[in-house]
Amino acid sequence: PQTGHCITMKTRFNQKIKLRMLVVGLGFFLVMAGIGAKAVYLQVFCGQWLSQKAADQYEKSQVTFGKRGTIYDTHQQPMAVTIETASVAAYPARIKNTAATAKALAAALKLKRRSVARKLSSSKSFVWIKRQVTPKEVAAVTRLKLAGIDFIPAQSRYYPQKNMAAQLIGFAGIDGRGLEGLEFYYDQELVGPVRHSKVLKDAFGRGFDSSHTAAPRLAGHNLILTVDLTIQYITEKALEEAISTSQARSGMAVVMNPTTGAVLALAHYPFFNPNNFTAYQRADWRNRAVTDPFEPGSTMKIFSMAAALESGKATANTIFFCENGRYTIGRNTVHDTSPRGWLSLQQIIKYSSNIGAVKVSELIGPEVLFNTLGYFGFGQKTQIDCPGETVGSLAPFKHWSKIDAGAIAFGQGLSASALQLATGASAIANDGILMQPFVVRAITDRNGRIVKTFKPQQRARVITPETAHTLRRIMMTVITEGGTGTEAALEEYTVCGKTGTAQKIDQQGTYAENKYIASFIGFAPAEKPELTILVVIDEPTQGHYGGIVAAPAFRKIARETLNYLNVPPAVKRDRLTASHGGEVLG
After folding, report:
1. Which of 3, 42, 266, 553 is surrounded by the fewest CB atoms within 10 Å?
2. CA distance 251 to 240
């Protein structure tokens, strides 16, 4: 019986072992079946997705930009070029001593050690340390022989003329895209073609193969401007001298060819260097001659007189009573700097009588004045090829009060940009034809072949040739003895001009007592104008009249530019004299 019991126990034990083996075997079978099913699922149904996922681990997209095009002046002197440079990068996983590496890099690249250390401690496989470093900095980092530090080829925008025409040219950012000025406006033309490719990289982010073969280096288009660097230099120096003499806040100047609309110079002060644009205030970057409206003051009187002459209601000799320097309109009083009685329309311009301008506006009516100003381009964009252009402000004449009409006639109560003012005056110089202003005359490819040209364009005839000739004769008297613009006179050339002095509006919307904008607009030679020149001085403190502050700068720009362009001086006709009994007869 005991033996039989043992046999029974052994049988049961063997059965349990078999059961366990069966369970374990079944478990292994289920696991292997699951793995097999998963493998089939991944390989058959998810194969493409997994392949892409794996590729993402070692394939990186790389974007390569072509060389950005060059900007030239009208004689193809470079004003903005692209140079080959390098940027310093790091692979944090390959750096053994982060603190020592950060200290060495910070010293070589003139960076803050804490900032560099933070980048080197990043969990990213790749980080930028400093973009677009100088050759001296490249040499300094190379000498350190630091593990995990690399140089990445890059391109940098360089402006060889530094501050010259900087507000017009603008600048490009660290990624090679235009941010201001012509660099921004013509970015699509200047930027080089973009090439996308895939690069194979190891765990440290180092490239070891590429999916594309080497391609020829592509480049963007070039710009050839209407700006002449010599005239730009003359203009900037004269403007700087005027600002210094008058101790003004800022200033701008425009030089145009009145018969074509080509801008020969566009100057601003304070200057800034686009090679280091971050060191300057944003306000210094702006092309204010295009973007900023201001009340022009008495320079607007030439357009008010154009309206009077064109309407047929007045001639140069029509006289107006100027109220002896004080004229009341409702609750407002208009003043002249010097009391005058009867003045002809010509004398109103010569002596710059505000009251005379008001009397002229009353004669012709607000609708005629408004329409004429609109014909000259005020209250609308000139459509120049520059970003951010202002329209200025010119309210519809139906909204004008009586004092509004008078104030607009002598240049307050409306606003315009320096470019609008210069373009309008150029129409008078151009026998009444308003031209489209422009600053780019051609676009070329990387081999210098012409892609596109920009020709002078007539916008409209705004006044008759007869009215334009009459206005030029009137404007010549401004420069003669007793006129407000004698400081603009040239010995070698005849000059047409008009002074402007306008009070500035403060933040409360009222006219500030001691803040002015002084200006002078003119063209020369009077018989056949080659240049239109506008000088605007903002908040001068040593004198504030346009004839004193801005006219000397006009004279310097006009004289030196006309000599540079080899414009022949006017022929002087000296009077014949004879002596008769000690008395000179002429």
Report:
1. 3
2. 8
